[in-house]
């Protein structure tokens, strides 16, 4: 059950066929979901509620063929490796990884290993992978470091176009959003002749602030009614940050954008997040990446011996970029709603439970606010 | 008639006494409003619908005593001078000016002149003023360059604490927002022991996108009902950019924030703008500045001969910064609504008319969406 | 007498025919030099030692046809307007102005006026001009605001390709560099099939730190030998900042660079500045802009009615960008040396004198350090 | 044998007692050096020429007590994790790691593990570690991923104040600089009442461009005389990038700097690099971090229950920051020279050899250029 299935239609633009980041041709998504054990937290043992999601940005050899990309930081209490290279050269190389905060390193190095394996361990293979994270320590044994290199390789092997599993999957497995169960969500928009897709790992925000299509849903479902997992965390330890959390947003488009135009799209992820009610709290790692597949062959086509010093590109004329900008804001908002709706109630370490946002309840609230026919 | 007078209450925090940027002690605002002539545009003659607004950031000698500040660019199709210095040194010196796009220069140099005058033309006076703008060429003879240095000096002389005139005043005189008449607006919030105030010059956005407190007001008042000034502009010339325009946002707080914390507040202005429905279109100059008066005496207290190499500061601990961040998002949203409500219908050059947002109409729409008792 | 005429050859690359920014086809430079009066400073009257320099970036209609550009701040104690637009859209529109600190505004607005005049005051003309500055208050009556709009128009009218006058001209008229007389300087490099040109307005640095091609020239010509104008300033008032000052650097290339690549070139200006001995002191406004004329037609070719949504571009492949990067560092270093050699001894307000760097003396020092045959 | 032992004195400021980053009180450095095997490259087996270096920034609990920090990117072809947090909050938490390009991940996660271990695996421990890298694949089996978590823990255990081993140690073990053997180097400067220390992992640059204290040493020792390891790499495979490589620079000071002031210091590392002859080539990851220990107790002193909302700080007044800025440029230059002088000739995988810069030879060249008595 996704937002549109309920009749919740964010914005004024139309989604692509799948209403997913995979509507952008060539983009593939793979998840490895790790759910194991129950009961009290025993660091190194579990319970495990985590995973890794990979986004493969195009249908070529992603390890050697970069595409244009740009990034934006709305709030930097998080990690997204590889950004210095993306900001400098405007290029994304390899698959993108998303996982929990304490597993960024293993995923990063495993992506280099994947690149090396794909090229017979040639000494010339080299990479600066892009790996993002949000914190799942409320439900998961995060200091158990349960994500292993093989989990990355299996997510890569599983990556496919087509509908994207959402909710409690991959990197989103143990995430919490607006004090409901959160996780992975996606949506897309057709923008003139191009498509824009967004995938989020949503793990941020206070209940009270939640808005869906402008309706104050969070106020209508108070914590006294559907309790917050963070209250359970607080009862166990000092650390309870419902207004912390984070959101990673990945934007894909087939439009021929230049790197600085990609960065502009990346910034618009934050506008979708703002519409959901977030103010990007201090504890939030709100980091966004946008890539554009509309230009290919950005490196020398013939390798080191290719004498050509320039390549030919297309660029979206600035006067036509608005639909792409608007699409990001809309698709982000809808991707978060999709994550909330897809995520099922989960009980993790120490019995901490994050409840799902019930579709029927949401529908009733939207109707009260004159938003559904 | 301001938003709260109508019962429209944005967010969950309480405003200050004036619900204005002047709730921050020492902050003063002054306007020079230039309205003259009617009829066809004759460049250099009129009609004139423009002005200049100044924000004086503290009650000391603003020309020689800087305070901490930070900035953010949501979309850069605009000008806000002085930002390189603010980004480098984290300091704001002098009064801030806001005017039309083609008068930034005259206002900038006049602010230097004001500094020099205030110090008997001493050769040691030196300044890098901060002056922002939005484009009022739909209503105003913008290529007539009607803002003169004396208009800056009179705005400075008029600057005062107390309630801030909103709508068609100062730099906001000829501005258009969501295809209604826009202009200057302000609001404030109490954030724990501190106050946050926001002042905007609102001149952006398409009607269809307008949301007020999440309610799709723009869709409820279509252009077929209350026409857009941009359609008149388009009928006269090729240039018609309802989705362009811009918004300048100035944030003041009495909290002792460091420069990088000010920049974080500045970025949250964009979150309020996003909630209004903007996606920060290509043609928009969405530039935001935040300053904090909670630390003073940042330069050597005793001048060049003062041997002290350090000064003492206070800093808001990061764990307590959230209310300040949230306050900016809320106050920005409310400041824009206040600008829309304060602005009266205006007819400018070539008979082009920007209509006011009618309070009664807004009230009815809010009620239909279950937002008012 | 320029550096190469003396046998001082900076770096390992070859200059263009003119060894000037005008080696980049289409680039034109114009100066208005204002020298008037002698004796004690009388604010508003003089003495006047200032001016304005314009760099016209290509041979088309610069007011309506933007080209790609990027910027870098080494130290932000200065102003370069228009940077928010350049950072957002990667585009430079119009001619660039360089003047004194207190005349940035008048030059900015005059450039808009020039754009409007060139287009019959059409209401659709709109601009966010790029104007930089350094401080000439040691020699010039800077609070007299002697630069007027007509000086900008005459600099534009005078702009031409061909050799660029250096030293005490245009915006560089009253500038001081390493406590010698400074001002405007330029140099260029051939970088594979392209050309890179740099123009500086040099007004920074302590004598002791001056290095030319790595040779500690400043130590070899101490202040006890050739006095500093700043010592005279200090004797008159408290303000004496030999280590302050600033440098504006403009980079032009005919290579087809994208905006982010332009920004990379802009940052390399600072590497040339560093080789001269600067550490980019707190008081320095070291702001750099690079533009690339290798792509044209970046806006819709047919105006608003042109249905095309994309344009075709060329991009220098990253593996071939190194010569362009190196060229900027080399040409910057040489442009500063050229400014120092071209500038003649000048006496300004209050009899303050900035002495020229004597070519013979420089030659002798270079020989002592085994640098000339 | 370090630069000063040879009589090479960079700049005009005095070093601290150790002329090392450890002159800043509380700063400790630890290395794990991995050298094993010889002969042909067998990925996964060796030969191994790599390691990890840690910089522990203060004498408190670095895992829970952050200090102010700032960063700068001169060229982004590299990785330095944790920068989004440092840019957002201006704070460095934990020890800094430096290693090879393909081991950043394992070092990052191991630093989190170290933090968790130090706090009994409390679920509240959370970290965004700062780990940098340069590429040692010319000498090392970089795709063998030989750095393991235990190597990080042993480097931490070994971290101490006192003299810092330089050259072929820690992360610098397999590095190449100006086509000589490179690696770790350090230097410091006294700046008024404070100390500034710099540590580099130097792995960049072409021979021909090498300058030491302005003297063109690289030209005086051509590749025909002392061969380049990159020529051997090129003979084995297509990948040979003498002008690539990278340099990581870490700046420490005991001055009470704010985060934005730290960022200013970080940018000056690039000025030292420029003086060495680098132009920051496309292939270079030139990433710099500066931290300041002069303010402590930046988080709530009493933990979550501490009701205080502000902390007291000291700030270096801007008018006194110049010696700190200059110190960074000087110390960086000297740290690189120290790295070159300390590094001994090393033969790595496939018999590839990076030769040391011979002190006697350097001395002779300096004398020829009138630089030593």
Number of strands of chain A: 15
Give the strand order, joined by hyphens, for the main sheet of chain A: 4-3-12-11-10-9
Q: Please state the average pLDDT score of chain A.
A: 94
Query: What's the CATH class label of chain A?
Result: Alpha Beta
Structure characterization notes:
- Four copies of one chain form a homotetramer.
- With 373 residues, chain A is of the alpha+beta class.
- Chain A has one domain: L-amino peptidase D-ALA esterase/amidase.
- Chain A has helices spanning 83-89, 104-118, 149-158, 217-220, 229-236, 259-275, 322-342, 359-368, and strands at 28-36, 48-56, 67-76, 91-92, 96-100, 130-134, 176-177, 180-181, 183-191, 194-204, 245-253, 285-292, 310-316, 346-347, 353-354.
- The longest helix of chain A has 21 residues, at 322-342.
- Chain A is globular, with a radius of gyration of 20 Å.
- Chains in contact: A-B, A-C, A-D, B-C, B-D, C-D.
- At the B-C interface, strand 3, helix 2 and helix 3 of B face strand 3, helix 1 and helix 2 of C.
